[in-house]
Design goal:
The protein folds into two domains: 2-163, Roll (Pnp Oxidase, Chain A); 168-200. The protein is 31% helix and 36% strand. It has six helices and eight strands. It has helices at residues 11-19, 57-62, 111-125, 142-147, 170-183, 186-197, and strands spanning 2-5, 23-28, 34-39, 42-44, 47-53, 67-79, 93-108, 148-163. Strands 1, 2, 3, 4, 5, 6, 7 and 8 form an eight-stranded antiparallel sheet that branches. Helix 5 packs antiparallel against helix 6. It is elongated. The model is unreliable at 1-8 (pLDDT under 50).
Amino acid sequence: MRREDFAGQNEELDFIFASAIVGELGITDSSGFPRVIPVNFAWHEGAVYFHGAGSGEKFELLTNGPKVTFMAYLTYSSVPSYWRSPKYACPASIYYKSAYIKGRGSLVENPAEKADALNVIMQKYQPEGGYSQISADDPLYKNGLAETAVFKILPETAEVKNKMGQNLPPETKKTIIEKLVERGTPLDILTAEEMRKVDR
């Protein structure tokens, strides 16, 4: 299932970007080759934020406002082929949700926006707290903010793809849900619930 949409208008995209631990930045490098870079990131107010060093190829590329892509995905349960056929291998699958955007990358230069973005990243990866909030006015973070580059991607298009057995015949889908519940891992229970949602 694909949906073309602008960022911030799609709850599934918001959910995937909020839940995914690592995202993948797609960019053309200085030699003209496409490059995919894994990054820790946060989705905040309709933009992707991530941080990095204030020098190097990624820094140089993103300061020029390049066209970029960004993708994140959530992996759900694997479905073995023998749940559907005793010998035929092709039914084996893994369910997932993915979100993909195209847009422009840029360097965040405003100190307050940098601090805000880094706070959102911290809240995502360390939700229990245990640190002082990052502020452009706090001497504790003066050097860190100056040395850290924060990057931003503003989406121009967004696409969500879900593979949750939605194209299967009802009886086959029912069987897979039953098998997932029987196997009973937390991920299986979650996958079964997501499969049920497709029909709602």
